[in-house]
Amino acid sequence: MGKRKRGDANNPIDIVSSTPEDPGHLSKHRTCWLHTVAFLHARKMKISKQKIRNFELTAPCFLGTFSCRRRSKRRVKCKNTSLIKGKNSSSVKCKDMITKRRKNKLDSGKFEHLLDNLWRSFSEDKKAGFTYLDSLWFDLYRKPSSKAKVLTWIKRKHIFSKKYVLVPIVCWRHWNLLILCNFGGSFESKTRTPCMLLLDSLEMSNPWRFEPDIRKFVMDIYKAEERPETKELISRIPLLVPKVPQQRNGEECGNFVLYFINLFVEGAPENFNLEDYPYFMEKNWFTAEDLDCFCERLNSSEN
Q1: Quick one: 50 and 177 in the same domain?
Q2: Among candidates 239, 165, 255, 133, which has minimal Cα distance to 201?
Q3: CA distance 302 to 297
């Protein structure tokens, strides 16, 4: 028997069968990298490896959902292998580099543990005007079956008595940080106007895609608290997306959110107002080395 050719018309390549079975889930991800590749492939357009990599970074929602073939037992030399000179010279294995990269990827349990440690490191004076929500609450709110429970949990946080509410968001395998500012302030105030900040270390993933869910989330919080503000006023709360430092790979978003929290708590103004926006939140806010040092300190605090 002859070998089957790739892309044979009689045996077309199936590039969508590995996606989640729920069609409703797929409909929310029209811009994901899988759909983009499928669109270009159907039109017989050439796709470079770099373009595919960019698609993956743009919408990492399906990363890790595809089955992989069994790992080969063949040993391959790593180009980046270096020698450590000393009494017992040994080479740095590729496995060490892969392990280090995997450690940078945070699941919700690891994230919450590190956030708890970070929160305890702040002084009581620093924490006085802040509170934070569990990183899973926003995603749970988006599910009808758990929406009411989440709003009840948030009510216990008394967020309208705080200047800043930190809301870590993990959706589609990506971490962002939403900050609710001055929610207890007056809409007519010029110095303490309610506003929202969305910090995203992967700007190319389009952080604005969260806006509809964020606005529903905020509207329901006001409603659950039986606040006097009208729907029209609440719908006009500004959502700002500052230009912040960007991650170097697809594994760092959780660490970025933790560092955003650390720096914001340490440097947040006494009264956040729109006239002085974006304050310190700029592309040169911190360096990659600053982030690495922070992660080392935070992880060492566990030991």
Answers
A1: no
A2: 255
A3: 9
Rounded CA separation 280/285 (Å): 6
- 152 and 253 in a single domain? The answer is yes
Domain interval for residue 47: 23-62
Does 180 lie in the same domain as 290? Answer: yes
The neighbour count for residue 103, using CB atoms within 10 Å, is 13
The residues, any chain, with a CB within 8 Å of residue 115's CB and separated by 6 or more, are 132, 135, 168, 258, 261
pTM: 0.69
DSSP tally for the chain: helices H, then strands E: 12, 7
DSSP label at residue 60: G
Tokens of 201: 């270390």
Place of tokens 């995203």: 200
Query: Residue 278: is the preceding peptide bond cis (ω within 30°)?
Result: yes
Instruction: List pLDDT tens digits, range 254-301.
Output: 999 999 999 999 999 999 999 999 999 999 999 999 999 999 999 987
**To the nearest 10°, the Cα dihedral for 217, 218, 220, 222?**
160
Q: What single letter denotes the amino acid at residue 286?
A: F
Give the Cα separation of 144 and 22 in Å (integer): 16
Q: Residue 294 in contact with residue 272, Cβ under 8 Å?
A: no
- DSSP 8-state symbol, 228: S
Return the pLDDT at 190: 81
Query: In sequence order, what are the beta bridge partners of 239?
Result: 196
